[in-house]
Design a protein that fits this description.
It is a single chain. This protein is α/β, with parallel strands linked by helices. The protein has helices at residues 2-12, 51-64, 83-90, 95-98, 113-117, 124-136, 150-164, 180-183, 224-232, 287-299; strands spanning 16-21, 37-41, 72-76, 105-109, 139-143, 170-172, 211-216, 238-247, 252-259, 262-267, 277-283. The chain is built from ten helices and eleven strands. A five-stranded antiparallel β-sheet has the order 7-11-8-9-10, covered by helices on one side. The chain has a three-stranded parallel β-sheet with strand order 2-1-3, sandwiched between helices. Strands 4-5-6 form a three-stranded parallel β-sheet, with helices on one face. The relative contact order is 0.13.
């Protein structure tokens, strides 16, 4: 979705800036934003553990904008970021004098939404986090709708509306593809600074206590089909995978994205000079279990 919005900026002649936040120590998606003004904030979440890094980056941006103005700034938090805490930074001095907050876009995973809401398959902190992300979002994007039956999709939308406790615009998407004009509509009209406008009990910072990002290096050359099977047999609490692997038959490095038990590969130009690495993100991961699973791949 962010790539689609950047393409829209290009068509409109707008100069964008991007702040990318990763919970882990490595960003394996920087190659997607070549020739863009990108600031990477790694190894923490800008809503809490590295909030000061966000402020420092914003200060740097303000200084740079005196010589190189931006038309729009995108801030992509981690999947476990609390938008309210990021908004509090943006609405404080001096940022509120330099930037106009247009919208907070919350992307929801349709394929796993019901599972995340169940008391039997998710934790209280995960349910609270999703609740906060929904009510903070001025626009809700229900993504991966192609993975959900139509009758179930309607049920999910009804549950989201009920959980949000207010009228929300819910847009359906596949691979984050939505009319960019709609994404750029200003949806935040007034906010009370210094007081939370949200009727919600906050559990600041606790939502990261079980989230982990594991980095696997020294990756062997893999067969695409076998690697896909390896990913799909990871423990269920591995929610996300991404990185670079060398495919045996092609002798070329590929970027991979793994989510909702599906994996997609994209060739990476050799000029980017990347090394194979696998990043796994999940809740309450068993490091020993992951390492045992990793050994299976290395043996292949």
């Amino acid at each position: 979705m962010l790539l689609n919005m950047l393409e829209h900026c290009k068509k409109k002649g707008l100069q964008p800036g991007i702040i990318l936040n990763e919970i882990g120590q490595t960003n394996v998606e920087g190659h997607l934003f070549e020739n863009q003004k990108v600031f990477e904030l790694l190894d923490g979440c800008i809503c809490c553990t590295i909030q000061e890094d966000l402020k420092e980056t914003m200060n740097e941006l303000i200084t740079e904008m005196e010589h190189s103005p931006l038309d729009v700034l995108f801030i992509e938090g981690t999947g476990v970021a609390n938008p309210m805490e990021i908004q509090e930074v943006l609405l404080s001095h001096p940022y509120t004098d330099q930037f106009d907050l247009m919208s907070i876009i919350t992307v929801l995973d349709a394929s796993n939404y019901l599972e995340y809401q169940s008391i039997f398959s998710s934790s209280t902190e995960v349910r609270n986090l999703i609740h906060e992300q929904m009510i903070c979002g001025s626009l809700l994007v229900l993504n991966k709708t192609d993975l959900v039956p139509l009758n179930q999709l309607e049920s999910i939308k009804q549950k989201i509306t009920k959980k949000s406790k207010q009228e929300k615009t819910i847009m359906e998407s596949v691979y984050g593809k939505i009319d960019a004009e709609l994404l750029f509509e200003k949806r935040i009209h007034s906010v009370t600074i210094g007081k939370s406008p949200l009727d919600v009990e906050h559990h600041h910072h606790h939502h990261h206590s079980t989230l982990q990002a594991l980095k696997l290096e020294d990756c062997p050359v893999v067969r695409k089909k076998e690697f896909g099977k390896w990913l799909k047999h990871l423990p269920a609490n591995v929610l996300r995978g991404k990185g670079f692997v060398e495919i045996e038959s092609s002798h070329q490095l590929y970027s991979f994205q793994y989510a909702s038990r599906k994996v997609a590969f994209t060739p990476v130009p050799a000029a980017l000079n990347r090394k194979p690495v696998i990043i796994l993100i999940g809740l309450g991961l068993d490091t020993e279990q992951i390492n045992d699973h990793w050994k299976q791949l290395v043996k292949q």
